[in-house]
Amino acid sequence: MLEDFISLSDLNFKIKEKIKNNFSENIRIVAEISELRESRGHAYLELSEKSDDDSVIAKARATIWARTYGMLKSYFESSTGHRLESGIKVLIVVQVVFHEVYGFSLNIIDIDPTYTIGEIERKRLMIIKKLEEEGVTEMNKELDFPLVPQRIAVISAETAAGFGDFKNQLQKSPFQFTIKLFKAAMQGEETENSVVDALERIFEEEDNFDLAVIIRGGGSKSDLAWFDSYKIAVNIAQFPIPVLTGIGHERDQSISDLVAHTALNTPTAVAEYLVEKNSEFYSYLDSLSHNLYNRVEDIISENNYKLAEIGNKFKFVITQIISLKKNEINLLQTEYSYKIKQQLKKFDYLLQNYPEKLLNSIRYGLNNKMQTTELYYLRLENALNAFFDNKKHCLAMFEQTKNLSDPLHVLKSGFSYTLKNGKLLKSTKDTKKGDFIETVLFDGRIKSEVKK
Asked: How many structural domains is the chain composed of?
């Protein structure tokens, strides 16, 4: 049993011979390039096959040696307009090889670009069909385009020449545009997620913008293919404000262009379109202003003619009315002249008797004021006398209280007080044997020594 085995190298050699015998001819296969790496002129690939649910069901390593790679790459890219890169499906001619050390791999010796072209177009048509079935392809196009589009959200690469051209074109115009850039990758595998993320950030502040613009500079047809993305297209189609694109070429249109509100060829073309829309609005305003001015002039002219006709019709009537009013004024003047004279006579009589009546009224008033003054004087005099009598009584009582509170008066009554060291002695507990104390009487002081 111990001799019933072979070495790994023997096993690998047998596998190599089996593969060589069974796969002696070149084979055409279809696979997706999941990874492509260049080194020293060679290309190292990882090929894969996916199921309908996009899970990988097969993988293989492949190599295109330098003597073949340069020719195949140039041929493929010139035929398809796409780079030979990861993410595309290819029809290739391969040699199956097995090496005892490096294992199983495929040597690619030829490639059929027509298959890739058809596969790309098939995939593109499937995405368009899916969008149409979901009913979203026209949603963004149906949005009302703003009358004065000046607040612009831009999705582009910060350093892209196309973004610079876009800004320069707007700055040269006479209109005031506000631009905010939402940075995103415009080519490569990050494009899809990056652009969708930028759209979501714009959506968070959509009230600040009139529309969104997606722009990129020049590039190959394969660069444009990143915008044949279902994820980007469905987000553009359902975006709540108009989306303009400047990502394509004159002859090519991406799926993103198809669902956008307006698709233009270049960033400069987008900027010119926005300037044109602003110009159209201001031209419309200018036209309205001109029409309004002409209409006002016509109305004034028509009314001047009508006013002249009315003036002629009423001129005679007005003259008659003025004449009638003059006669009425003359009659009123005569009537009121008589009434005024009668009133003046009445006032003359009153003025003659008025001085005497005024003098009597003054005298009567003065007598009343004098009587009132005398009464106030008597009341004030009585009040002052009572006030001063009360204050005298208070002073007498205060004097009596002061005298009774005088210490000398208390001493005269037979009282005395005792001092110790000049301070009032209030208790026997505050003395001891040998202390000297002083007793104060009305007529002198007595010094004593405490014996016990």
From this structure: 3
